[in-house]
Design goal:
With about 550 residues, the protein is of the alpha/beta class. It is built from 19 helices and 18 strands. The chain has two domains: about 220 residues, Rossmann fold, CATH 3.40.50.1220; about 220 residues, Nucleoside phosphorylase domain (Rossmann fold), CATH 3.40.50.1580. Helix 11 links the parallel strand 7 and strand 8.
C-alpha cells in the first residue's frame, strides 16, 4: 500500500501505455464534475429554505446544504423532481464533457461510472459521433427494464463495447431516488457483487463529493489495482473515503487547482491527444448561444405552490408553444396523422388552423402554408408561437452514409444564386439534437438524424447532379439539398427567430441510377413522427420564461 502525489503528465503517459497494451482504465465522475453541482438555479430555489445564508465563497458547503434540505422530508417526490428538473434545465454540454468524450472515443477509458443524473456526457459522446447502443451501452443499476447489465469484469473489457454506468439513475427517465440513492443496488446482492467488479480496474476518480457520492465507496474501493484520486480538496479524515484511499493497493492523488475537473480534463486531453484543440473556442459563438441544453427530455411537474413565483409582466405572451407549418398537402397530412385522437379545426383569416392539443407539455397548432404565401404574417401574429417547426423534404448524399428515409436538419441553409444563407435557431437545433439522443435511449430504436449545413435554391433544381457539383465548390461540408420547406422557413423566420426545418431524405443524388424509389408518404411520416416525439419529450412549454431561448 502506498499513497503519493502524481502529475497530469505522468497520468497521461500511463494512459497512453495502457491504451497500447489494451489494459483499460475506469473513469469515475463524481458530483463535483456534474451539472447539478454547477446549477445556480438549485442554489437560488433552495436559499430561502436554508436556516442560514449560503457561504458564497464555498460552493461545496452550499451544495451540501441543498442536498440536506431536499433529504429532510419537507418536499414530496413530485416537488423534488420539479426542483431537480428546473435545476438541470439550464445545464449544458460543457467543454469538459467534450474532452472526456474525446478520451472515451480514442479508447483511453473503456468504462465510465458516475453518480450524476444529468445526460451531459451522453450528449457530448453523441456530439462526437458515438451513438448509444451502437458505440456504448448505458446501464442504470436497479432498473431491470432499462437495459441488461454489461460485464464489469476487467478481463472482459478488451474489444468489448464501452459502457456508461449511471449508479444513481437518470432524472430524464424518472429513474432516480434522491433520498435513497444507494437503494438502487443495496437490496440486490447479486447486482451489488457485480458492481464490485469495478474494484479490480485501474481507476481514475474525479470530482468525488463526500456527501452525494458516499454510497459508491464500497463499490469502487478498496481498489485492487492503481487508483488516481483527483479533486480540488483533500478528503477529510472522518468520511469513509479517507480510510478506503489508504486501504487501496496503490493510490496517487492530485489536489489543488490542477485537481479542478475542468482544468484537469483540458490539460489531460492536451497531454494525451496533443496540442491540437478539440475545438476552437474563438470560432464558436458566445457561450449563451453555443452551449447545448442537455435536459430537454425531463418532463416537468407543475411548480409546487411553495416554490411558485409571480409571472413577469414584461414577458412575451404566447398563445401557442409550437406552430407546425406544412408546405404541401402531403406534409399537412403526415403531421395530422400523428395525433391519433384527432384535431380541432378553426379559422384564422382565410386559413384553417388545426389544434393538435397538448403534446408533452406544449400546446401545438398546425397550419398549411404555401411557400409563396403573402398572408402568413397574419396567422403567425394571431397565434404568437414561441417557436416554429417546418416539415420538408431533401436530397441526401450516399457518400456520407445517408439512406432514403433518414432525416436531415440544417443548422444553416445556404441559398444558391444569391450568396446568402439563413441561420437556424441554435437553441432549437441543440434541443432536437439532445431530443434525438433521448429517443434513441428510451425507444432503443435508432433514429438516423444528421445535423449540418444544407443547400437550397430560389429556383427549381432540375438537375441534381449539377447542384451536387456546385455544393462541393461552395458548401463542401453540406449534408444535403433542401427540396421543400426552405422558402417557407425564410418567410416564417421573418416573424419568429426560433425556427427549425426538419427534412426527410426522398432520394440520394450521388447514388446509382437504379436506386429504389422513395415512398414520399413514408418519408414525410418519419419526419412528422420524429418532430412530435421530440416535442412530447417535454421542455417546449413557455420556453422563453427563463431566457433559455433566444429570439
Amino acid at each position: 500500500m502506498s499513497i503519493s502525489e502524481i502529475t497530469i503528465a505522468t497520468m497521461a503517459q500511463c494512459l497512453k501505455v495502457r491504451q497500447k497494451l489494451q489494459k483499460p482504465t475506469l473513469l469515475f465522475l463524481g458530483a463535483k464534475a456534474g451539472a447539478l453541482f454547477q446549477s445556480q438555479t438549485l442554489y437560488d430555489k433552495l436559499q430561502r429554505f436554508s436556516p442560514r445564508r449560503y457561504d458564497a465563497r464555498n460552493q461545496l458547503a452550499r451544495f451540501h446544504q441543498c442536498i440536506g434540505i431536499l433529504e429532510k422530508g419537507q418536499f414530496s417526490e413530485t416537488e423534488i423532481h420539479y426542483i431537480l428538473s428546473r435545476s438541470l434545465e439550464d445545464s449544458f454540454i460543457e467543454d469538459t464533457h467534450k474532452y472526456i468524450a474525446a478520451l472515451v472515443k480514442y479508447n483511453f477509458f473503456q468504462l465510465i461510472a458516475t453518480t450524476n443524473i444529468d445526460v451531459g456526457l451522453e450528449a457530448a459522446l453523441d456530439w462526437l459521433g458515438l451513438r448509444v447502443n451502437n458505440d456504448f451501452k448505458v446501464f442504470l443499476p436497479g432498473i431491470s427494464s432499462s437495459s441488461s447489465a454489461p460485464s464489469l469484469r476487467k478481463e472482459d473489457a478488451r474489444n468489448k463495447q464501452k459502457a456508461l454506468v449511471k449508479l444513481y439513475g437518470e432524472l430524464a427517465l424518472g429513474h432516480y431516488n434522491l433520498k435513497q440513492r444507494d437503494q438502487f443496488f443495496a437490496n440486490d446482492r447479486q447486482l451489488f457483487q457485480g458492481l464490485q467488479q469495478m474494484q479490480n480496474w485501474n481507476i481514475l476518480m474525479v470530482g468525488f463529493d463526500p456527501v452525494w457520492d458516499v454510497a459508491v465507496v464500497p463499490l469502487l474501493l478498496p481498489c485492487a489495482a492503481t487508483l488516481w484520486y483527483v479533486n480540488e480538496d483533500a478528503p477529510a479524515q472522518n468520511p469513509p473515503i479517507f480510510q478506503w484511499l489508504q486501504a487501496s493497493h496503490n493510490t496517487h492523488y492530485l489536489l489543488g487547482t490542477d485537481g479542478d475537473h475542468e482544468k484537469f480534463f483540458r490539460v489531460l486531453y492536451q497531454h494525451v491527444i496533443g496540442s491540437a484543440p478539440l475545438f476552437d473556442p474563438r470560432a464558436e459563438p458566445a457561450p449563451s448561444v453555443a452551449r447545448q441544453p442537455i435536459s430537454v427530455a425531463v418532463s416537468k411537474a407543475p411548480e409546487p405552490q411553495s416554490l411558485a413565483h409571480a409571472p413577469s409582466s414584461s414577458r412575451v405572451q404566447h398563445k401557442v408553444d409550437v406552430l407546425l407549418l406544412a408546405a404541401t398537402e402531403r406534409e399537412l397530412t403526415a403531421l395530422r396523422d400523428q395525433q391519433h385522437l384527432g384535431t380541432r379545426e378553426y379559422t384564422i383569416g382565410d386559413r384553417t388552423c388545426y389544434d393538435l392539443g397538448k403534446v408533452g407539455d406544449a400546446t401545438v397548432c398546425l397550419l398549411r402554408a404555401n411557400e409563396t404565401d403573402s398572408s402568413l404574417s397574419e396567422q403567425i401574429q394571431e397565434l404568437s408561437p414561441a417557436c416554429i417547426i417546418i416539415l420538408g423534404t431533401a436530397w441526401g448524399f450516399n457518400y456520407k452514409g445517408q439512406i432514403v428515409g433518414s432525416l436531415l436538419i440544417p443548422d444553416r441553409i445556404v441559398i444558391h444564386g444569391i450568396e446568402a444563407e439563413n441561420k437556424v435557431s441554435t437553441q432549437l437545433i441543440k434541443h432536437f439534437h439532445a431530443g434525438n439522443l433521448m429517443l434513441n435511449r428510451k425507444t432503443k430504436k435508432l433514429v438516423l438524424v444528421t445535423f449540418g449545413p444544407m443547400f437550397s435554391s430560389t429556383k427549381v433544381i432540375e438537375d441534381p447532379q449539377t447542384a451536387f457539383r456546385d455544393i462541393h465548390e461552395s458548401v463542401p461540408d453540406a449534408i444535403g439539398i433542401v427540396t421543400s420547406g426552405a422558402t417557407l422557413f425564410s418567410l416564417a423566420q421573418n416573424h419568429q427567430a426560433n425556427c427549425l426545418l426538419v427534412t426527410g431524405v426522398s432520394a440520394l443524388v450521388d447514388a446509382a441510377k437504379d436506386q429504389d424509389e422513395a415512398d414520399a408518404e413514408d418519408v414525410l411520416r418519419r419526419g412528422a413522427e420524429f418532430i412530435l416525439q421530440v416535442i412530447a419529450l417535454g421542455g417546449f412549454h413557455d420556453m422563453e420564461r427563463d431566457g433559455l431561448w433566444s429570439r
